[in-house]
Amino acid sequence: MQFDPPLVNATLIKRYKRFLADVRLDDGTEVVAHCPNPGSMKTCAEPGWGVRITPANSPKRKLKWTLEIVDADGTQIMVNTARPNRIVQEAIEAGVVSELAGYSHIRPEVKYGENSRIDLLLTKNGQQDCYVEVKNVTLLAQEGVAAFPDSVSKRAAKHMNELALMVKEGHRAVVFFLVSRTDVASMRPADELDPAYGEALRTAIAAGVEALAYRLDFTDDAVSVGDRIPIQL
Question: Which of 39, 98, 172, 178 is least buried, going by the fewest C-beta atoms within 10 A?
Fold first, then answer.
């Protein structure tokens, strides 16, 4: 995914009220950026770290900047949780994710389950529908290991239960972990922060839900799905 408008370098002053971040541009100007991340952002929001932000396209938007990427002393972390669905869709369409190849149509945000929307629904005539739930993974649990979620998430656990129900109804269901930091080689459920999610994930996998984890690759002006990495269950 190419960033358009391009990324702008800045320094994080602080992140607060969940969706706000004070940042300092390279010319010394301090601005407030929208932080599109409802999680704790634990291990990826230290004051003084570098960040990359984008200017808003709409002149009507109250906050003129969006926080996209954090540079944690050389580790790149994508913290904008509005981006992963599009990134994963582009990767599937480009044939990067071999496990999800062969579908003719991809539809985002399709209603399913208990008042939910699946991130991506893959379909092809004569083939099982495939329900794909995308999760952005930013938490560093220990050296070389990422974890999800970074705070208690009843919604994430609910999604695992709904994916398991899709399998029971005869469909294919996949939880796709986009591991959006460059300093890890594997990931696991964050049982120490949200044991209910870890239990829901393992129960869903036992019921036939597939779990994939792919690392995100970064360049100066784009991000893309890279290599698959193992999940420690």
Answer: 98
